[in-house]
Each structure stands twice: as C-alpha cells, then as structure tokens.
Design brief:
This protein has 209 residues and is an alpha/beta fold. The chain has 2 domains: 147 residues, Alpha-Beta Barrel (TIM Barrel); 60 residues, no CATH class. It contains 8 helices and 6 strands. The strands form 2 sheets. The protein has a 4-stranded parallel sheet, covered by helices on one side. Helix 7 packs parallel to helix 8. The chain is globular and about 40 Å long.
Length: 209
C-alpha cells in the first residue's frame, strides 16, 4: 500500500481513538513514517510483520518514542511467502530469528520491557510448520520476551475443521486458550475479543490462577 494511502487510513483513526479510550493503541505497519505519525497521534505500540527489517528507520522511531514493539517472524514477503516456505527446523529457526531481532532492538535503544515476539503463524509457513510452532510455542520462552499469538480465524484452523473463516470462532478459542493456559502465549491477537476474554477467565478460574 502506498504510504500516503496508509497514512490517510490510519492516522485519523488513531487520533480519534486516542482522545476517547485509555486502552493502549497498537498500529500494524512496516513503514517508519507511518509509525512516527501514529505514535505522535497517540498510538503506543507498533506491530511490524517484518520485525523492523522492512524499513531501516523503524527501530529508531520506536526507540525515540519509547513505544512497544512487536517483532513478527515472516519468511519471504507477503506477496510470495506462501509459495514454497521451507525450513530445516522451523521452531529453532523462528526462535533464533526473533532472538537476533530482539538483541538488535536492544542495541538500538529499545527497552527490553517494550519488546514482544510473534512466531508469525501463517506467514511463510505450511500447515505442518504452523502446527509445530503451536505445539512447541514454549520454546520461545528462553528469549525472555512476551509471546504474541495471532491464530484467530487463520487458515490452519480451517484446514483442521473444514470451516470457512467466518465460522472459526470455536477453533480460534480452542487454539488461543490452549496456548495461553500452558503459559506459552502471553498476548492473544483476536477478532472476537469478548468470547476470548470469557473463555480465558473460565480456564483461569478452573486452574486457580
């Protein structure tokens, strides 16, 4: 998307929300100028699917504002990432990438408590790769950063259930809450917020946490 179009779509929404809510606002972008203007308008978190590699100025902007930064793993580019994703050991390769990017961010001045990591389910990964990451998500814990999980309504769940995107609520809840209950996912990115919160509360109550 051209930067002018992205700015026109994002910045007015951020400005409007920032004056009305106390909840931290996260903006998905890989463009440093969009991040700069979004943070200036009231956002406090940047989610970058390129983990700061798409724009060399991105890490500096995040550091300047003291913002939160979600580093996501993606093999390839959005246009080509699903053509033939290949790994020898997907969990270790994703972990090593996220650890390296975390260290680069620390060196650039981003505070450790501002960095979170996302394995990038569905971004340059086959069904088998996604399942391996979900089963062993806890392997990312050694990096020492909160793990963000975005599994809501994704194609992997459709492959398991045979259901179209709009009918994957139950599957999304199961995947998100399973990972959260094991302590391997700390932040859940979801479409259906209220049902996910309810499910998480029930699991926490049963577990006594």
């Amino acid at each position: 998307m051209p930067i002018d179009e992205e700015l026109a779509r994002v910045i007015p929404v951020v400005r409007g929300l920032a004056g009305r809510i106390d909840i931290p606002i996260s903006v998905d972008t890989s463009k440093a100028e969009v991040a700069r203007q979004a943070l200036g308008a009231g956002a406090s978190i940047i989610n970058d699917v390129t983990a700061g590699r798409g724009d060399p100025a991105m890490v500096g902007v995040v550091a300047e504002f003291g913002a939160g930064f979600v580093l996501m793993h993606m093999q390839g580019k959005p246009e080509t990432m699903q053509l033939d994703p290949t790994y020898e050991h997907v969990v270790s390769e994703v972990s090593e990438f996220l650890e390296e990017r975390s260290e680069d961010c620390l060196e650039a001045g981003i505070r450790a408590d501002r960095i979170a990591i996302d394995p990038g389910i569905g971004f340059g990964k086959t069904f088998e790769h996604n399942m391996a990451l979900l089963r062993d998500l806890g392997a990312l814990a050694y990096i020492g950063r909160p793990v963000v999980l975005g599994i809501s309504r994704k194609g992997t769940l459709g492959q398991i259930t045979g259901r179209p995107r709009g009918e994957r609520l139950a599957a999304s809840l199961a995947a998100a809450c399973y990972c959260a209950s094991r302590g391997s996912a700390h932040i859940l990115r979801v479409h259906d917020v209220a049902p996910t919160v309810d499910a998480a509360k029930v699991i926490a109550a049963i577990g006594g946490s």
